[in-house]
Write a structure and sequence with these properties.
Helix content: 25-40%
Distance between the termini: 16 Å
Oligomer: single chain
Largest sheet: 6 strands, mixed
Structural class: alpha/beta
Order of helices and strands: EHEHHEHHEEEHH
Number of helices: 7
Strand content: 15-25%
Length: 204
């Protein structure tokens, strides 16, 4: 680490997200730290949008560490369900009185779409990524991956709703793609890449 290196925190315990953003920031004089590196507290997601939740977590990270902090919030928005599960994607089964898990969330979603024909199962993965700075400034970017929900899970990769989501122009679910293929088109990858020039400006 050089004297000019900027330390930036990514507010997540997910090592995969840290590695992904580290790759995206490659070439910048930035040391990226994860939540486990700085003992970040968990933040309750009380916002009513992806952007609000991302900013809540980013600002909490700044308050806890005094360092610039990046945070994201993401989920699946299904048109036939008026945008649900949306910000509740990770807690969809729990909100309906079921044991929380990725499998339970996916099973409930497929039940809710049981009578919806394939042509009407359009959906998108949405990600908001926020960068908050110690001086109070912040930037939020949003990105999406358009696609559709299929009628049964396919593939062993990814997580969450990946086994039932097929991106536009693909016949595979995101769970059937390699990690590199998914990262190249993913909503989170797009959002993180949009933050790169903002962080580059921060580094100077």
């Amino acid at each position: 680490m050089t004297a000019a290196t900027i330390r930036v925190v990514l507010a997540t315990h997910n090592a995969g997200k840290v590695a992904e953003l580290r790759d995206i920031l490659d070439g910048l004089d930035v040391e990226l730290l994860g939540a486990d590196d700085v003992d970040l507290p968990d933040v309750e997601e009380t916002g009513d949008t992806f952007a609000a939740n991302a900013l809540l977590k980013a600002r909490a990270g700044v308050e806890a560490t005094g360092l610039p902090c990046v945070a994201d919030d993401s989920g699946l928005a299904v048109d036939a369900l008026d945008g649900a599960p949306g910000i509740f994607s990770a807690r969809w089964a729990a909100r309906h009185g079921r044991e929380p898990s990725d499998a339970a969330n996916t099973a409930l979603l497929l039940e809710q779409l049981g009578d919806v024909p394939p042509a009407d199962r359009t959906a998108r993965f949405v990600c908001a990524a926020a960068l908050a700075l110690p001086d109070g400034h912040h930037q939020v970017v949003e990105a999406a991956l358009e696609g559709r929900v299929v009628d049964a899970p396919r593939g062993d990769g990814g997580f969450g709703y990946d086994p039932v989501f097929v991106p536009v122009g693909e016949d595979r679910t995101t769970a059937e793609m390699t990690a590199a293929e998914k990262h190249a088109i993913s909503h989170r990858g797009k959002a993180f890449r949009a933050l790169r020039p903002v962080i580059a400006e921060l580094v100077g």
